[in-house]
Amino acid sequence: MAGAVTSGLWLALCWALAPSADAQEGLCYEQFGAGRCKELLGEDVLQADCCLNPNYGYRVRAGAPCQPCRQAEWSDWAPWGPCSVSCGEGTQRRSQTCQGQGQCSAGPRKRWEIQACSLQDCCPVMGGWSSWGPWSSCSVTCAEGVKRRIRSCTEPAPVCGGSCPGRDSETLPCDTNKICPTHGNWGSWGPWGPCSATCSPEEAGPKPQQRRSRVCNNPMPSIIPPGLPCSGSASEDQTCIGLPFCPVDGGWSNWQASSPCSVTCGMGRITEKRLCNNPAPRHGGKPCLGLSTRSHFCNTKIACPVDGQWSEWGEWSPCRRPGYTGDISCREIVGQQTRTRSCKGRSPDGKRCEGSTIHIRSCYNMFRCKLEGHWSDWSSWGLCIPACGKNPVKSRKRVCQPTYPKFSMETQGVGSTGSVNVSFWGKPWPQCQPINGQSLEVQEKEPCLNVPPCPEEEEYDQPLFSAAHLARSDSQPNTAFEYVENFDDAV
Predict the structure, then answer these.
(1) pLDDT, position 457
(2) pTM of the model
(3) 3-state SS assignment for residue 433
(4) CB 197, CB 243: distance < 8 Å
(5) What distance in Å separates the CA atoms of residue 34 and residue 51, rounded to the nearest whole number?
(6) CA distance 405 to 332
(7) Residue 243 CA to chain centroid, in angstroms?
(8) What value does the mean pLDDT take over residues 336-353?
(9) Nearest to residue 113, comparing CAs of 385, 489, 424?
(10) Which of 167, 208, 217, 457 could form an SS bridge with 240, CB 3.0 to 4.6 Å?
């Protein structure tokens, strides 16, 4: 296999290396997604054994960050954080984390972006209170009550969500110098008394009864002036319902294996089951305590197959017309160009990439052609740069865009393929009226406002395998590593 050893090859070597005497043991998980480990497979598992399957996750110890077994790649951008101010213009930040084995790029395993934001165009302005209104009459006709007065937040009124500090009402105690009568009220019901039996008879007939009572003392009715007595009965009876038959607690049967190892490569589970039938619980007896199933991990010591993945398409080749010796630049002469891609990362027993390694299209060669141009609209404001540095700046720009000639955009394909589309290729020289002395691009910059300091970089665990471990001369691979496939068929 030609070419330099890639980072994917290094990861395959990590998985294939036999564990060394000082290899760490940790926690192995069957799933890794959204930065989290799921479905614990087992504890005290060698890193190399767990990462035989690149879809698994691994923790070197309980509570440590979870690392995927796959090759290192940047996670999705986290949601934008809160705006740094509640009104006016501020900034907000988001982050991206390098997850997996190896490095995504040189530098830290976390990077940031910052952009301008505004939650509210204007800032609140406080208002002022009016004068207090007159006091109201007393709230009761006997004993003591309160009187109240109010004011309004209108002098001046608040602006843009502002308010007035303080309360909009005041109260004072008032005394009518009259005694109020106290009416009687029941106290809380007492607890239900015991039932006459602990088990309800299965046959028809009288059922056990229970009683509860209450007292008119919450409060007692006054004598002078006379209060009303409590209404209703001081006690009540009810039939005891839901009494169980004599209970029989459940008991477990013996454990029995219910499945072989769940996988044919990497690590899986073996499951055992038992039944709550020795005896089964009856007549309200307690169910069996504990779980009806249990599992422990099994290790096939076989690496799982890794399917191939297409690389990104390469650059288009120059637009030329095969067999034509003249120059087709800037002319309505259809040429042809190609681009290629490669199938990477496949293990010997993994699936090949579907599709072709080469893409062919028809084209017009516009490379360095002088064309009439027109200025684009202003672009949106870009990110604040630097994201974590002093005096970040945002920018936007206008570019001189070419006006392509009205060539036919379809041509006859080879064989029986019918008509095919034609694309313009090459960077032309558009001719625009200069703006501020610039004829190709003008740019505008502004400082970003209210930028908070960047948080300190978080501490991350080291990758499961270091470069020093990979370079050990006594480490021997026990499986093939990576294949880069090229196919000769063309579209």
Answers:
(1) 59
(2) 0.42
(3) coil
(4) yes
(5) 18
(6) 9
(7) 50
(8) 92
(9) 385
(10) 208
